[in-house]
UniProtKB/TrEMBL annotation:
It comes from the Eukaryota. The keyword Metal-binding applies. Keywords: Hydrolase, Magnesium, Metal-binding. GO terms for molecular function: metal ion binding; phosphatase activity. This is Inorganic pyrophosphatase 3. Gene3D superfamilies: HAD superfamily/HAD-like (3.40.50.1000). The active site is at D11, D13.
Amino acid sequence: MSGTTVVVLFDFDRTIIDGDSDRWVVTEMGLTRLFDELRSTLPWNSLMDGMMKELHSRGQTAKDLKECLKRTALDPCIVAAIKATHARGCDLRVISDANQFFIETILEHHEVLGCFSQIYTNPSFVDEGGRLRIFPFHDLSSSPHACKLCPANMCKGLVINQIQASVDKSGKKIFIYLGDGNGDYCPTLKLGEGDYVMPRKNYPLWNRICCNPMLIKAKVHEWSTGEELERILLYLSDTITIQDNISILHHSV
Ligand SMILES: [Mg+2]
Ligand SMILES: [Zn+2]
């Protein structure tokens, strides 16, 4: 029995799915013009809530939205990686600046929603009138975060700190963080020496890590394709578990 839990933290857009779920919905549902008009006037999170208002006023239902989300591309290798790491006892979580409705719809469609123990994202629900509402993850009025790296609605570094504090009490944890964007840099800085970060190659997170690798304590393993993500993630989770079993054996001899 291993004493260490591997906690795998996934960003969602451009990490689990190949593209960006917000952009996908905007393009596929014919909202591009309005989106571009309002882009400079509103924070992203409020803008997406506004887009959902527009969809609703055009008579599009939450069911239409679901059908649109189900067509997003998810690499079969990434589905396999999620299922395999879950089956091996890793604790899988999503940290994303998309929203609950989009993420759950897509993961459920690919039959991997149950593999995740937690999803940290902007809360959303379908109101009585059938409109999807999207809210910020952090309450902007009562508890704004002080992080300068992150957008006001969500600091993923703060989320990592909370996870680290909560799991500290229940045995040794090693984190593997997978991401692509600027919003994944803050949580990457919070990882320790025993942890791993898997940035998507040639994307903003990877660029920022490469600019100043000395700032990163975690070991860095880049990936480009779903096939690489699967291979590296399984290799890392296996290696961590095997090393841990060896150290337990040494202690018990
Ligand atoms: Mg992303
Ligand atoms: Zn932050």
